[in-house]
Amino acid sequence: MPREIEGQVLEACPNDDFVLWRDPKVVTSVVVTRGDEVVFGRRSIDPGRGLWCLPGGFVNQNEAPADAARRECREEIGAQVEITRLIGVYHIAKTAAPSMVGVAYEARLSEGEAMVPGSEMSEVAFYGADGLPPLAFPSHREIVDDYFRSRASRAEAGSRHGGAAARRSARPSRGRAR
Question: If I label 77, which of 8, 115, 118, 154 is the partner at 20 to 30 A Cα–Cα?
Answer without folding.
Answer: 154
